[in-house]
């Protein structure tokens, strides 16, 4: 289902069946989620927008990009010397998600600025994701120490 990029209201956009919530996350919220919680948090937020806009078919590409960015940044940061900061990697993955968000639906998201979730909700999503990742890292570390 194609989404029109002509000016209008959010009510005119086709929506996925079963999605009752018409609120979206802004591009700023996607960048904030990626910056605070990794590309996985940014993908989670973007997935919600795709579902509301009726473009769920783009989820495979979205998650493939997000997981690839996460694994690449995680792998590269392990190979870098300790003196080298990882800020550049964080900036690059945030920039990549920003470009993907702008190319995917910036026109659709900008239609009705009042229909956005708060950025505090994005911070909560990032904190939950970071908690899950912390538990996973601790579990893997404990498992590897057994052998």
Measured between the Cα atoms of the first and last residue, the distance is 51 Å
Give me the Rg, rounded.
17 Å
Helix content: 55-70%
Question: What's the helix-strand series?
Answer: HHHHH
Total beta strands: 0
Tell me the count of domains. Answer: 1
The geometry reads as globular
How many helices? The count is 5
- Quickly give the structural class: mainly alpha
SS strand fraction: under 5%
List low-pLDDT spans. 1-19
Give the overall average pLDDT.
80
Largest sheet: none
Task: Describe it.
- The protein is an all-alpha fold and 147 residues long.
- The protein has one domain.
- The protein has 5 helices and no strands.
- Helix 1 runs antiparallel to helix 2.
- The chain is globular and about 50 Å long.
- The N and C termini lie far apart (51 Å).
Which descriptors apply to this entry?
mainly alpha, disordered N terminus, globular, 147 residues
Fold topology:
Layout: H1 27-37, H2 39-52, H3 59-79, H4 87-109, H5 119-145
Give a short overview.
This protein has 147 residues and is mainly alpha-helical. The chain has helices at 27-37, 39-52, 59-79, 87-109, 119-145.
């Amino acid at each position: 289902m194609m989404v029109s990029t002509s000016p209008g209201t959010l009510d005119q956009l086709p929506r996925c069946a079963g999605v009752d919530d018409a609120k979206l996350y802004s591009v700023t919220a996607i960048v904030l989620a990626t910056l605070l919680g990794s590309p996985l948090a940014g993908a989670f937020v973007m997935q919600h927008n795709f579902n509301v806009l009726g473009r769920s078919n783009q989820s495979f590409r979205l998650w493939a990009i997000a997981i690839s960015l996460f694994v690449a940044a995680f792998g590269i940061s392990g190979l870098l010397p300790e003196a080298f900061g990882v800020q550049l990697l964080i900036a690059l993955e945030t920039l990549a998600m920003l470009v993907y968000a702008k190319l995917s639906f910036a026109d659709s998201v900008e239609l009705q600025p009042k229909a956005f979730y708060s950025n505090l909700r994005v911070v909560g999503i990032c904190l939950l994701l970071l908690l899950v990742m912390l538990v996973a890292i601790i579990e893997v570390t404990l498992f590897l120490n057994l052998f």
